[in-house]
Structure formats: C-alpha cells, structure tokens
Amino acid sequence: DTVELILFHLRTSGFQGLTLAELAVKMGIFGNRLKKILNKPVSAGKILVIDSEKQLMVEETIFAEVIEKVLAILELFHRDNPLKAGLSKEELRSKLYRGLSQKFFQSVLANLIKKKEIVQDGAEIRLAGHQVALQADEKEIRRDLENLFKEAGLKPPTIKQVFAHFPDVPQSLIRQVLNLLIQDGQVAKVSEDLYFFVPHLTLLEKKMTAFLQKEGDIDAPRFKEMSGLTRKFSIPLLEYFDRIKLTIRVGDKRILRESRKYSVRGLSWIMRENLKKTSITKELNLHSLRHSYATHLLEEGLNIVTLKELLGHSEITTTMIYLHVAQCKHIEPHSPLDILYSRR
Fold first, then answer.
1. 9 and 84 share a domain?
2. Is the dihedral of CA 214, 218, 224, 229 positive or negative?
3. Which DSSP string corresponds to 202-260?
C-alpha cells in the first residue's frame, strides 16, 4: 500500500521528518501525483506538515511522542519545583531531542495550548492545571521574608544573612520562596548577593530620576550622598539602574536614558497596586497587557501576519496562540464578486 509505505518512511525519519522532495525521491513518485496521494493522510491527521514553507512533514506517532515528552518534562518540573510558576521555553526545548527544530517545537506548543493542556505566560510554559500552592509553613516563610526585606529599607540583608535568619529552613526552600517573591514583583534581585523590596526601589528610582533631571549626571560619591548608603549597597544599585535601563554609564558618571521614564519593576508595582482596587482575581502581569493588546487587535480585524510583525514574533505559530482567546466576528463565506457587484 502506497500510503503505508509513505508513513513507514516518515516514521523512520523520526522528528527530523521529510520534505516533499525527499519523500518523492524515496517513493519514486513526483509532482501532483504525490501531492494527491498525500491529501488523504494529511487530512486524516496521520501526517502533519510542520513547516509549510519547506514542505516538511512528520508522522503522527512521532508528533505524539514529542507531545508526551513535553508533558512528562513539565510534570516532573512541577513536582520538583512546586513553588516555580513554569519552565522557560528554551530550557524546555533543551530537555527534548537534540536537533529538534524551532518549527517543530512551536507546532507542539501550539497544539498543546490549543487543547488547553499547557499555558504559555511570557517566556514560561506550565501545565494548565499547575498552580503555585504554598503549604502553611511555606506561607509563613514567605510572610517573614517579605517583612524582612520590607523592614530593612534600602539596607537589606545579604543572601547569607537571610539563610542565617532561617537556620531551620533548607536553603533551597528559601531560594524558591524568594524566587516566588521576585515573580510576584514584591522583591527585586539587584545583585547575586542583594535583594530589595520593590516599593523601596521604586521610590529610590523616582528620587534618582528627579536628581538627574535637575543635575544632568551623577557619580558614585554623589549617589552615595544622595541615597545615604554605603558602597556595599550604592554600587550594586547603580549597576542595577544601568541594567534596567534607567541610566547609562558615561565614564565614571551616569546620565538618564532619555526614552526611559519607568522601570519594568516600577510598572509591575504600579499595575499590582491598581489591581488591588479591582475585583479581578486572575493572576496578571505586564505581559498580560501585551496579550490583551494583541487579542483586541485581532478582534478589531487586524490580520495575523501584520500582528506577527507588530509583536516581533519570528514564527507565525507563536502569534496564532492569540487566536484561541480572541472573540473574532464570524464572517459568512462569500465571493469577491459579491462585493464587486454590490459597489456598482
């Protein structure tokens, strides 16, 4: 049977798949004749076209195998890291088969997102049913950690001092809870050794901005004087402001980046504080605004190719994720001739 032989060749090729040209050589069937034979198995889902531009195809069981591995990796990750929201896309891809193409990977993610088995939040992937749920003792650790940084002001303890503050708690758990505070926008990592309470950083950022708008530049001694901090804190903070693109270093001085008004941390804090005034219970972040923006554009009729360019996606499959939430207007099928003659 010709179709069975085609499926055999595709199974043998594994996740690398075969292009239409490669399959034609193996089968000795070319052009429209081969395309006609492929119509039925493609329509039935036995063959999946991973890359329409390259006409790259894989067999359904190979695709299903990769899907199962993605789900298994995520399940194991959530089991070992219950306090982490999700796994980064790049790390997930690295745990799959070596040589797996970006197109294949994106197709698998799009398939799982469409079936609501996984959720993509920014650059992180998680199982749809996963929620970060703290146990009673972990909630207490979180409260104590948050209060520790809140009360410390702009002179927080080093990570070693944090560990010493919780002598009976494993350091790995402290780091997980700390990462959760970072994800929630309560704490910001300024250096490998120092973490700050975000509202304190936001106020310092405003003070720094006002100073630079008035004076034009600032060096390390003047920042130390302005903030009232020792070098232990002032130098990492100056480097942090450079890193979040609030300032740019010119020689031994810093100047304000002209296009920068708020840091990502600052905006996250503003968004979180305003969310408290609403009845919204869903977990949201700055990326949610980008997601809403894209969804609304689709609902207003913007074509998906233009949206892809606007969002800066390299793959159309990434943009297609927004289609499953967009409430697009249903348009009945019609002929262009109907429009043409209606104008006359």
1. yes
2. positive
3. HHHHHHHHHHHHHHS-EEHHHHHHHHT--HHHHHHHHHHHHHTTSEEEETTEEEE-TT-
pLDDT for 339 beyond 80: no
| pLDDT tens, residue by residue, 139-149 | 888 899 999 99
Which structural domain range is residue 324 located in?
285-344
For residues 71 and 83, which has the higher predicted lDDT (pLDDT)?
71
Structural domain includes residue 265: yes
Higher pLDDT residue, 284 or 119?
Answer: 119
Give the residue among 48, 183, 18 at the shortest CA–CA distance from 110: 48
Distances (CA, A) of 151 to 4, 77, 237, 270: 69, 34, 18, 20
Structural domain count, the chain: 3
For residue 328, pLDDT over 80 is answered with no
Q: pTM of the full predicted structure? A: 0.51
Among the three residues 240, 259, 283, which one is the final residue of a domain in this structure? 283
